[in-house]
Amino acid sequence: MSLRLLAAGTLGVALVTAASCKQDPTTTDRVCTPGNYVFCRCKNRSEGTKLCHADGLSFDACSACDPSEELPPAPGPAEDATTPDARESKDGSGGDSGGDATGVARPTPGELLITEVMYDPSGTEPDAEWIEVYNAAPTPRLLSGLQLKDGGNRTEAIPADPPFVLAPGQYAVLARDTAAAVAALVPKGTILLEYGAGVAVSRGVLLANGVGGAVWLMDGTTTIAGSLYGGWFNQTTPGGKSVQLKTLSLDASAQQASWCLSSNPWATGSDRGTPGAASDCP
After folding, report:
1. pLDDT tens digits, one per residue of 166-179
2. Contact 213/99 with Cβ under 8 angstroms?
3. Most buried residue, 45, 192, 242, 269, by most Cβ within 10 Å?
4. What pTM, to 2 d.p., does this model score?
5. What is the pLDDT of residue 60?
6. Domains parsed from the chain with CATH numbers
7. ∠ CA(10), CA(13), CA(19), 5° rounding?
């Protein structure tokens, strides 16, 4: 698979893992793994997630409801009771959680946004191309299992294993080739994954420069986020300007007026844009 998750240590994001938790004699008394998000359910049957505290015994409030409206967990270990398979057998809700065993849901349309597209970098194309995504949801969202699709209907799947979670309010870069992006001075710590390293230049997801230029983030046949940037702006050679979303909503992202052509370099000697950061559109 050409799409590879990069080292979690450089990301500064909410990866759902307990690898960094120091084991101690009280580990066997814990009901959850510190730092993990697990499912929770409210009296109205809506579902959310809650974060396990460092003590392994307590949680943040359920993201879907007030504390007084949260249902108690099913019998047994908390994390077992909130994985999709366990939920199917314990509460009859079925196994399709919209997420995976981490307990973090995949996004619904508009919860993730494509906020920046470097479709015409001054460096080598398509290797130096990149896409920026933003989590507009109030809680973490799972990208694993989603797909990137370009204007030519070429697709690339985001790996399901290991799970990848984007923290609320976080901007992140998806690079065609990490080495090329870093050479173009994109901050390495903002790059979450690469979607085309080692793939022939005529294959994989390609960010076309012409009127057919477009990119979407899909969950099967459901469009989660997108940008129909093709033909909206003109660049003179050698290019090097990304397009940025000014208004953070799915409806706005479909309108040219909600985007701008970047005018400021993000580093000395770099192309123009704001990879991994909020828009600086006027």
Report:
1. 999 999 999 999 99
2. no
3. 242
4. 0.68
5. 82
6. 27-91 (no CATH), 106-261 (2.60.40.1260)
7. 75
